[in-house]
Design goal:
- The chain is globular.
- The chain has a single domain, classed as Response regulator (Rossmann fold, 3-Layer(aba) Sandwich), CATH 3.40.50.2300.
- The protein has helices at about 10-20, 35-45, 60-70, 90-95, 110-119; strands at about 1-5, 25-35, 50-55, 75-80, 100-105.
- Helix 2 (about 35-45) packs parallel to helix 3 (about 60-70) and helix 3 runs parallel beside helix 4 (about 90-95).
- The protein is about 45% helix and about 25% strand.
- Strand 4, helix 4 and strand 5 form a beta-alpha-beta unit.
- It has a five-stranded parallel sheet, with helices on both faces.
- The protein is built from five helices and five strands; from the N terminus they run βαβαβαβαβα.
- It is of the alpha/beta class.
- About 30% of the residues are buried.
Length: about 120
Amino acid sequence: MKSVLIVDDSLAVARQLEKIVSSCEDFKVVAQGRNGAEAIKLCQQHKPEIVCMDMNMPVMDGLTALRNLMQLTPELKVVMVTSLGGVGDKYTEALRLGAKDVISKPFEKDTVLKMLRRL
């Protein structure tokens, strides 16, 4: 069973993602964060194998957090979440910084699980 950290400033989105991830016995949600700074703290605390993280958040955005997480834990598998439909520069930037994939809101349960299983 793979451990998953969910980071999103929207409680509704975080809950929806947690519900999808928890519905599959392959994954276990170990914690939830509200911004990039919390993501870094929670990763150090819980040592998840996978992080699902929003790109746009207050305090510290997802790309800044991703940059930091990749320096701290290069083997970490990070999936960025965006409501921007994965458009352009940020999508490319996320992959360049080490994200394994980018998923767009609204989520399709099967798409999310299929993508997580590939990691």
